[in-house]
Amino acid sequence: MNNKIILRVENVSKSFGGIKAVSGVSFELNRGEIMGVIGPNGSGKTTLNNLITGFIKKDGGKVWFNGTDITNWPEHKIADAGLTRTFQVMRPYPTLPVYKNLIPPLYSARARRSVGGKQGDRKARAIDLLEEVGFERDAQVPYKLAGSLPLGYLKRLELCRCLALRPELIVCDEIFSGLSASEIASMLPLMEKLRDHGITLIMVEHRLRELFRIANKVIVLNFGEKIAEDEPKHIFSNEKVHQAYFGGEVTYVSEDNGLFASDQ
Amino acid sequence: MQDKRKERIDRGVKVRSDTIYAISSMKEIMYLIGPRMGLVLFLLALPLVLPIYWQKVVSITAVYALLAVSFGFLSSYVGLVNLGGALFVGVGGYISGLLNSAYGLPLYISIPAATLLGALFCTLVLLPCLPLRGIYFAIVSFVYPLAAVRIISATGAFGGTDGIAGLDMIGSGYGSQYFIIVTLLLVTFGVSRLVSAEDIGLIFRGVKDNEQAIKASGLNLTMYKAVAVFIGALIGSFAGAWLAHLYGWVGMSLMATDFSILPLAATVVGGTSTIYGPLVGTLLLVPISEALRDFGTLRIVFYSVAMVFFVVFWTEGLLIYIKRKYEQFERWVRV
Ligand SMILES: Nc1ncnc2c1ncn2[C@@H]1O[C@H](COP(=O)(O)OP(=O)(O)OP(=O)(O)O)[C@@H](O)[C@H]1O
Ligand SMILES: [Mg+2]
Fold first, then answer.
1. Atom 5 (ligand 1) nearest CA
2. CB of A231 closer than 8 Å to CB of A212
3. CB neighbourhood size of B200 (10 A)
4. Rounded distance, CA A61 to CA B298, Å?
5. Does the CB atom of residue A45 touch ligand 1 within 6 A?
6. Residue A140, H or E segment
7. B234 Cα: distance to centroid of ligand 2 (angstroms)
8. Which residues of A touch B210 (CB under 8 A)?
9. Residues B14-36: pLDDT tens digits?
10. Would you give the end-to-end CA distance of chain A in angstroms?
11. Alpha carbon A136 to its chain's center
């Protein structure tokens, strides 16, 4: 298998009762790229994330990560291999200081391997990591109670929980949603920094304008099917995509289309 | 119309001693360790001041308290509501009894061996239920000791309905009383430390509150549940082995439902948010229930009423109430 390809998803499907949440989705992702996953509400984006990261059982299809077939691996083993994820609904330990939220991932075998098998000072490592994603140490933010954090910090904490594993690939589920334009603007460089550190990102997003600024490519889901895969700037020239989003004929799509408004 | 409101304010000494760096006076040190010292001294004084009959009650209370700590640990800190405390007791008791009677091992070997082997056995048989959550785990764990009793009486294994008599007995002198009291204190402090200060305690909390994040952190959920059950079963099996030799007999009554239910009642009465809650609850419930001995099995009504009272009227439990009074004062303010 091509060494450049970090993730290969082939024909994965999942139905819930009669609903085909994801049906026959395939794609390949190159190492070090950012891939966007977009689609209307209920189009199967979160389900696809769950299927890739092992959180739900596949009805069919296969997933390879770094050339290894991980189709039937349990979720913790997939995370241990370096493929981790954020959750759309974040649930930190609200009554604990922020840095303590990172203790469990830092306790994991993968995190320990990344520091040469040492137990080390997990608290210090947690605070270093938090600082990297923007928790100002001088302002004591890592010591605040997680329950008191504003949404922007919660999203960063969620990302940080993944980074504690020194992952190769993170699937982010709507990490920008609910944030203001300026908050997202401050997250974008962080995402690019991660990519520059060699971390591959899959970003499930509704915030298209911001996503398109950093994504190398985008896949579009509609009713569980992949209807398009292209570079961000070309994706809305695709008739099916236009149909899915606007329910009409392709006319003309400009950057300033209502779709790209800062909160859809 | 309400024009007054109760205001709760942290006592100055709590505020000052909240972080370890702030301790500057003997008064603050006493404030912090006082309650724990009080508990230790209270328990250590019991054998000295109680009449003979009640000294026996001390040992039994300690056994129940160990079970309550085990229950509190698993339910409040790992999210496994284990209603099968009687399984731990029975397995620990039977193993120690067998080792002692059939293989002639002395107490100081049979009890530790039963603690370890019992915990292993209980963890193994509970393994298939670990993916269950909440009420489902509770129900299945509750059924285990009931099933074990049926199996023993039907097959006549391990002495069947007669049990195994003539085991070596633990004396009722100060030595054994202090051994069990000190063990109880060490176990309680140990578990309290484990859940509040150790990194693995945070993982257990995650297992309870956020399974998904634990899995996504590359941690094997089932394995951590098994580790927790093992810790809980160590405590319970030890309690069972101790009880077997306190009576000099093992039998089906070691798997009595009391061992499963009292820890639950004690935890509800004492409060769930610290590990001392179940301990304090037991120290209250068991002596009262012992005083009601003449009423026989009607005692279970007493547990139930106590539990209902606390669940309905005093949800926070006794210990949290006391803790609040200790840490805060209240005053009425006009609104
Ligand atoms: N556990 C489940 N049980 C039943 N149906 C489900 C389950 N999870 C998802 N679905 C259904 O599958 C479809 C896809 O859901 P999914 O959450 O993947 O969509 P999504 O693209 O992430 O939507 P959103 O943009 O709102 O987050 C929806 O119709 C949803 O109702
Ligand atoms: Mg979703």
1. A16
2. no
3. 16
4. 60
5. yes
6. none
7. 43
8. 91, 93
9. 666 565 555 567 777 777 777 77
10. 39
11. 24
State which amino acid sits at residue B335: V
Q: List A10's β-bridge partners, or say none.
A: A62
- The parts of chain A modelled with pLDDT lower than 70 are 1-2, 117, 119, 247-264
Task: Please report, for chain B, the start and end positions of each structural domain, with discontinuous segments joined by +.
Answer: 53-257
The complex's ipTM works out to 0.85
**Alpha-carbon distance B179 to B108, whole Å?**
12
Residue type, A141: V
How many angstroms separate the CA atoms of A57 and A50, rounded? 9
Q: Which residues of B93-104 are buried (b: 16+ CB within 10 A; e: fewer)?
A: bbbbbbbbbeee
CB contact under 8 A, A104 and B213: yes
Q: 3-class SS at A251?
A: coil
Task: Find, among B179, B146, B158, the residue nearest to B259 by Cα.
Answer: B146
Residue A75 sits at the chain B interface (C-beta within 8 Å)? yes
Tens digit of each residue's pLDDT (9 = 90 or more) over A14-39: 999 888 999 999 999 999 999 999 99
Quick one: A5-91+168-263 is in which CATH superfamily?
A: P-loop containing nucleotide triphosphate hydrolases (3.40.50.300)
Distance CA A205, CA A260 (A): 12
Closest CA relative to residue B268, chosen from B236, B312, B205:
B312
Sketch the domain layout of chain A as residue ranges.
5-91+168-263
CA A168 remoteness from chain centre: 12
Would you call A104 and B220 a contact, using CB atoms and an 8 Å cutoff? no
Is the pTM value of this prediction over 0.90?
no
